[in-house]
């Protein structure tokens, strides 16, 4: 039920959720959405939480499911006056994020920021329609996002910590060219369901039903 703006909207909502928590833990802290090599370009002592989307993968649970939308009134000649149905395919995705923490090590700012972030995510394990609407309302470039409809009508976007071994964490940071390691944790946001077709706000949709699509051999 989401459109092409869903991925960017998830990132923006995460930024807004974490900003309040980070500022409460370390006054003046900021939350950014930059590449890791640019996250600390103002110096290691500046308190920063950086959110970086490092991987996007298909969601297995929703992979073979289409959506069926019921519209009021006749659509094509011969349709029932009670309404007509439209089937649309969707792209179900999992978004993997790296949260990294910077600040004054002598005052343990990175660790204080880490504690505030994991606490905030634990308190908000699902992105609510209201949080999405608040973020979209402050971001003109996201004004056409329909992620709030997905979480209200079809599927939540849930945040789950990703357990990375030391080897996996080392490999992840090694893909960033000459970037020193920073204290970090990883989270998965799932599922994001991107509807195919023309972007639209589906306020005219009467009901939404989920139907299994044909499973390819």
Defining traits:
three-stranded antiparallel sheet; 8 strands; alpha+beta; 29% strand; 217 residues
Kindly describe this structure:
- With 217 residues, this protein is an alpha+beta fold.
- The chain has one domain (6-212).
- It is built from six helices and eight strands.
- The strands form two sheets. The protein has a five-stranded mixed β-sheet.
- Helix 1 packs across helix 3 and helix 1 crosses helix 4.
- The relative contact order is 0.25.
Short description:
The chain is of the alpha+beta class. It contains six helices and eight strands. The chain has one domain.
Write the SSE topology.
Layout: H1 6-25, E1 30-32, H2 36-39, E2 48-58, E3 65-71, E4 84-88, E5 90-102, H3 109-123, H4 129-138, H5 147-153, E6 158-162, H6 166-174, E7 184-195, E8 207-212
Parallel strand pairs: 1-2
Antiparallel strand pairs: 2-5, 3-4, 3-8, 5-7, 6-7
Helix pairs in contact: 1-3, 1-4, 4-5
**What's the total helix number?**
6
Estimate what percentage of residues fall within beta strands: 25-35%
- SS-derived structural category: alpha+beta
Uncertain stretches: 202-217
Instruction: Please summarize the sheet with the most strands.
Output: 5 strands, mixed
User: Number of domains in the coordinates?
Assistant: 1
Q: Strand sequence of the main sheet, in spatial order?
A: 1-2-5-7-6
> How much helical structure, as a percent, in the residues?
25-40%
Q: Any idea what the shape is?
A: elongated
Q: Total strand count, please?
A: 8
**Overall average pLDDT:** 84
Gap between N and C termini? 26 Å
Order of SSEs, N→C? HEHEEEEHHHEHEE
Radius of gyration: 20 Å
